[in-house]
Amino acid sequence: METMQKITLPMNEATRLSLHAGDRLLLSGVIYTGRDAAHQRLVDAL
Q1: Exposed e or buried b for every residue in 12-35, given b needs 16+ CB within 10 A?
Q2: Is 45 helix (H, G, I), strand (E, B) or coil?
Q3: In sequence order, what DSSP letters do the residues of 9-44 get, joined into one string?
Q4: Per-residue pLDDT reduced to its tens digit, 1-46
Q5: 0.85 cut: is pTM over it?
């Protein structure tokens, strides 16, 4: 069974460079999320 990497956010550069597509991660820390309308408001604000 494949193990999960435990990642605390924000992650450092070394951690970022060690990640590959398909890696299984367990994320901990602050994560910002938004749906399509929120993304459009952010784009409009830029």
Answers
A1: eeeeeeeeeeeeeeeeeeeeeeee
A2: helix
A3: SSPPHHHHHH--TT--EEEES------HHHHHHHHH
A4: 678 999 999 999 999 999 999 999 999 999 988 888 998 998 999 9
A5: no
